[in-house]
Amino acid sequence: MRWAASADPEIMLRMRPTVTDRQRRLILAACCRACWDDLNEPSRNAIVAAECWLDSTGGEPARAAAEDRVDSGLSEYWRANDALTAAMAGTPGEVAATELAALRERYWRADRIRRVADVARSVAAIGYGPETLLDALRLVPAITGTALLREILGNPFRPVAFYAAWRTDTAVSLARHIYESRDFSAMPILADALQDAGCDSAAVLDHCRGPGPHVRGCWVVDLVLGKE
User: Judging by beta carbons within 10 Å of its beta carbon (0-12, 13-18, 19+), is residue 86 exposed, middle or buried?
Assistant: First the structure.
């Protein structure tokens, strides 16, 4: 099945010859961001901290701090887990069915946070296995996962030759603004700037002018900024 038409992110990962460490971490972060509405505030802060570490030069202290922020966001999960465990260990009939149902609902919501937090921790982790990437992609619908892979990895079977002359001050400034602010509404403007610089790559221009979704790690923005 062709990369551009695949509906299964796991198949796409098997098709992709290599994924850099930075790309892996960006995919993990993007999957967490796609679950944003399901998360509590500490977990959101943890993801932001992990993302900041990804682009920082803070070294081990910054990495460890990001992991600590992730762990601090898990307190709601452990409270919900303890409450449900205690209720289910009680005498039959001691806990009302409605109360038990509410505890289970609270647990499942909290477990969703835990699963995302596990992935968020890996954004700033020293080591993690390939299964972490699959765990991240399983957090989101398949259609979202495939779109994120195309957004960050591009099309590995149709590599784009990106020329240094296209990195004008205007293009680089726009790309930096997009990357730092996540204001992807400026992508069509970036396309215009690249075209003015002589870019004639349909893949690059169409991607910038397409509907997205766009996330931090967009392969075009990274090319303009020279990020590996």
Answer: exposed
